[in-house]
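B., you asked whether I could sanity-check this one before it goes into the benchmark set. Here's the sequence:
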Amino acid sequence: MDAGVGAPPPPMGAPPPPPMASSGMQENMASALCYALGFITGILFLVLDPYKNNRNIRFHAWQSIFFSAGYAILSIVIGMFFFTMWSFGMFWMLWMLVRLAFLVLWIVLMVKAYNNQRFKLPLIGDLAEKQA
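And here's what the prediction gave me:
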């Protein structure tokens, strides 16, 4: 329910509603959605008009782009290495653990962004902050 004209005030002690981007969806939802499809949604939120002016959303969009690019590069390098290895079993298990770690980190990034927390990844977070 929208807290517009005629709406009752929020109860005492209740947390304030999340800030809205200038128009459209709330800032926390836009920040979380920056990570949803990796660099695709990151780029979208960098070019869509009400969101491209918000520094926090721009940070999450850039961090999503850099995170996705890092994963893609790592996938290519490990894929090339995988085909030159003789012991596929051990290497395949290691690669599955790396992929699981990326999945968990991706979920953590989305949850932190949704909760209006700026979770900076090492190296990538600094680059994203400079771009934002």
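One thing to flag: The mean pLDDT is 82. Otherwise nothing jumped out at me.
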